[in-house]
Amino acid sequence: MQFHRFENSSALNSTFARWLIRIVKDAIAERGHAYLAVSGGRTPQALFAHLAGTDLPWQQVTITLADDRWLAPDAQDSNERLVKSVLLQDKASAAHFVSLVTTDERAEQGAAVINQRLSSLPKFDAVILGMGEDGHTASLFPCSQELSLGLSTTQDAVAVHPTTAPYQRISLSKQRLLNTQHLFLHLVGAGKLPVLNQAVAGDDVLQMPIRAFLHHPCVDIQVMFATE
Ligand SMILES: O=C(O)C(O)[C@@H](O)[C@H](O)[C@H](O)COP(=O)(O)O
Fold first, then answer.
1. How far is the CA of 32 from the centre of ligand 1 (A)?
2. Nearest residue (CA) to ligand 1, atom 11
3. What separation in Å is there between the alpha carbon of 186 and the centre of ligand 1?
4. Cα distance from N-terminal residue to C-terminal residue, the chain
5. How far from 63 is each of 51, 98, 204, 227, CA to CA, in Å?
């Protein structure tokens, strides 16, 4: 794990955007296309806005989510709505988006279609994770019955029913999230640091699923942190 601490979120986001732009450009130079998986929630919104205004060959970029809430794509709490309304705007409106939802009523009914969509994507160039105060990441929640599956399956995505957070979810599996050139954990807020420290100090991944990424022997996760 590499820990990068910034004075504030604006310093964090400008460095983070610069690194991501480099990653996207390198990927396009190497294989003609870049693939990113981003998280929803509050933390990435300013980074998304920053990226949206950046000149890049966005038509050669495909973006998906680390997880989504099983909601209509225009629902207020949908991560897809967030990405479309903040990231896929302005210059970035030319990017391709792979949705993690279908019109099925239940997440498990749509999971096969989502898995098919994801299986057509190669290794990601960058995955940006967030972390909740219970140590969840993506929608791999300590409280959910599907956690062990999400941590062990070779499938790309799993349907999840958290008991401590709203909505059915669809989450990329640990294996799919780790299938990336670069892995980031984006943390803004003083309250995230004690959670990170607690996660780093222990090894029970069922208690804090983020540990599966922090302690991975082969993937060097970059933690991007600012207190405000
Ligand atoms: O859909 C979501 O909510 C997520 O992708 C989730 O894993 C998020 O990244 C963390 O809960 C942190 O959320 P905040 O950025 O809002 O603190």
1. 30
2. 132
3. 10
4. 22
5. 12, 6, 31, 27
Distance CA 27, CA 22 (A): 9
- Taking every pair of Cα atoms in the chain, the longest distance, rounded to a whole number of angstroms, is 44
Which pLDDT tens digit goes with each residue over 130-145? 999 999 999 999 989 9
Angle at 23 between CA 22 and CA 28, to 5 degrees: 100
Contact 180, 128 (CB under 8 A): no
Ligand 1 centroid from CA 59, angstroms: 27
pLDDT digits (tens, 9 = 90+) for 41-89: 999 999 999 999 999 999 999 999 999 999 999 999 999 999 999 999 9
Task: State which ligand 1 atom lies nearest to the alpha carbon of 65.
Answer: 5
The CATH number given to whatever domain includes residue 211 is 3.40.50.1360
Q: Give the range of the structural domain holding residue 221, as residue numbers without chain letter.
A: 2-226
User: Rounded distance, CA 125 to CA 121, Å?
Assistant: 11
What CA–CA distance (Å, rounded) separates 108 from 35?
A: 25
Structural domains of the chain, count: 1
Q: Indicate which residue's Cα is closest to atom 3 of ligand 1.
A: 41
